[in-house]
Write a structure and sequence with these properties.
This protein is α+β, with helices and mostly antiparallel strands and 252 residues long. The chain folds into 2 domains: 145 residues, Lambda Exonuclease, Chain A (Alpha-Beta Complex); 52 residues. It has 10 helices and 11 strands. The strands form 3 sheets. A 5-stranded mixed β-sheet has the order 5-8-9-10-11. Strands 1-6-7-2 form a 4-stranded mixed β-sheet, with helices on both faces. Helix 3 packs antiparallel against helix 4, helix 6 packs across helix 10 and helix 9 packs across helix 10. The two termini are 32 Å apart.
């Protein structure tokens, strides 16, 4: 892993990200469409795991074994789904960046970056004060092969990370406080732990307007999940193959 010191939103930050698959986009990169439905996937997983077909059929809720072409291909270990339009577009953007060595596409609006930086700074200070943890800003963390990047919001002590969000959407704020569901950011956080080798990530939602009721800082600790990470790494390798395919096509 390598660290690149570059404040978010600066020209150096944009340049450091060029051509890299970044953690904030990992969920987009691995998104797929089509393929097996939930019951088919359960059946295939059980059979490929060594279960008797009749047992797998019953466990998946089938009266007769599924016999579609997709299931047959999946049992043979073939890929049965396709990259989503979002994944394909992201792959094409990266392919162009790897050729031009410059950022491609519409940049993030300046006011969004400025607000995010201001909110992150305040959230880090409050988090440190309330938890006693020591947070170090670390810029962009890059995998040893230079393909993947993670703009961390902070390294915590020896083993942790923080991921700060400061949403404006009131429904998103309410839902987060009610449910504590952070699955929307799971790929980003687990991807960050993979690249940095850290053991946990404290998800932080900062809403200064709720300070008067003591809900300005919502914190949820997410532990490293190596099973999730192993699957993520495999899927990201497949996505990088798509980027390389597009790059080769553009160069030819």
């Amino acid at each position: 892993m390598m660290f690149i010191e570059a404040p978010q939103g600066t020209a150096a930050w944009y340049q450091a990200r060029v051509g890299k698959i970044t953690a904030s986009c990992f969920a987009d990169a691995v998104s797929r469409i089509g393929g097996l439905d939930e019951r088919q996937q359960k059946y295939v997983t059980l059979v490929r795991g060594g279960a008797d077909k009749a047992v797998a059929q019953a466990e998946a809720g089938y009266k007769v074994a599924p016999s579609s072409d997709l299931v047959r291909r999946a049992l043979l270990g073939e890929e049965t789904s396709e990259p989503s339009d979002t994944a394909r577009r992201y792959a094409a953007d990266l392919a162009i960046e790897r050729i031009s060595a410059a950022p491609h596409g519409e940049p993030i609006k300046t006011w969004v970056l400025e607000r995010g930086h201001e909110m992150e700074t305040k959230a880090r200070m409050i988090y440190e004060a309330r938890t006693g943890a020591f947070v170090t800003e670390a810029g962009i963390c890059v995998s040893d092969d230079g393909i993947f990047g993670y703009s961390t919001d902070g390294l915590v002590d020896d083993d942790g990370l923080i991921e700060i969000k400061a949403p404006i959407d009131s429904i998103k704020i309410l839902d987060m406080l009610r449910t504590g569901d952070v699955s929307e950011y799971e790929h980003q956080m687990q991807g960050g732990m993979w690249i940095t080798g850290r053991k946990y990530c404290d998800f932080i939602m900062y809403v200064p307007d709720l300070a008067s009721v003591g809900k300005d800082l919502f914190v949820k600790r997410i532990e490293r999940d190596d099973i999730f990470i192993d699957k993520l790494v495999q899927d990201l390798a497949t996505f990088d193959g798509l980027v390389k395919e597009y790059e080769k096509g553009l160069r030819s």
